[in-house]
Amino acid sequence: MNSTKLSIWELLADKLTRQPELLAVARANCARWLSEGHSAPQRLREWDDLLATAEQSETGRQRLREVLAGANEADARLREFHPFAGILTREERRQTRELCGYRH
């Protein structure tokens, strides 16, 4: 394994920083999954609030980067279920240190 590769969370943080319009993709995932009666509505609402704040301010974007960096247990718990499907390309995911447990 190449230790110089980015983690999936670092790659997401970088891509969302460069392309903040992609926050809308994650928010749409939250909305769709909530409307479908997903089994983790509280986490989806937490993510949606975090993403909405990130869309509105640099402070919100910084908080999102902190969550993605995994500064504490609460952030790690939130990352266990995330709405970032469709943000990274297959090639980007392939280049990270960890692979998702499922195939897209």
- Count, helices: 6
Helix-residue proportion:
55-70%
Termini, distance in Å? 22 Å
Biggest beta sheet summary: none
Number of strands: 0
Radius of gyration: 13 Å
Order of helices and strands: HHHHHH
Mean pLDDT value:
89
The chain-level structural class is: mainly alpha
Number of domains: 1
Contiguous runs where pLDDT drops below 50 for at least 5 residues: none
Strand content: under 5%
The 3D shape can be described as globular
Give a description of the structure.
This protein has 104 residues and is mostly helical. The protein has one domain (8-94). Helix content is 62%, strand content 0%. It has helices at 8-18, 23-35, 41-56, 58-69, 73-79, 90-94. Helix 2 packs antiparallel against helix 3, helix 3 crosses helix 4 and helix 4 (58-69) packs across helix 5. The longest helix has 16 residues, at 41-56.
Short description:
The chain has 104 residues and is mainly α. It has helices spanning 8-18, 23-35, 41-56, 58-69, 73-79, 90-94.
Topology record:
Blueprint (H helix, E strand, L loop, with lengths): L7 H11 L4 H13 L5 H16 L1 H12 L3 H7 L10 H5 L10
